[in-house]
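Appendix B. One record, verbatim.
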Amino acid sequence: MANVMEKGLFLEDLRAKIQANGEVVALFQPLSLAQLQWQPEPKEWNILQCFDHLNLTHDYYTPKIEAALAAPQPVLLRDVYQPSFWGRIYMYFSFNPKYSFPAAAEIAPDTAVTLDATTFNHYLARQETFLDFLERVADIDLTHTRIPIARGVNFNLGDCLKVLAYHDALHISQAQRVLASAREHNV
């Protein structure tokens, strides 16, 4: 069994990732609106758009996770996490810096909407929900609890949790690069 991880270690890793993501948010909160809305290039996201994308991604996954938690698969023989076939493929391409894909329409920030610093509050609230999910999965089989993601594509519950935490870190790093670029341009 490839990529099998003991559930406690897996959840500990996700908690650490969520904490680190939340700590970075504190670095963005005192920035000016001009810095938060500055774009390196016209089609690249600004800092607030990065976080709006994360909020939309959590909004997409949260009802799916809630539905899985309402009808959980109890832990079977081993209390572990192992990526599903589709989860492994998705994570390989999504978390590999060699690949870049446009965001799906339902999770892409609306560039016509003017965002403000409340976007961070929304993100932090979603992180609290995410931490609650980690508490609620204690007696649930992360590998065998299936979640439909798209037509013909199912992740397991562990995949969804990992995708959220690591996807957040990916776009928070993107926001940090945007900030560095803004500072280079004296914004």
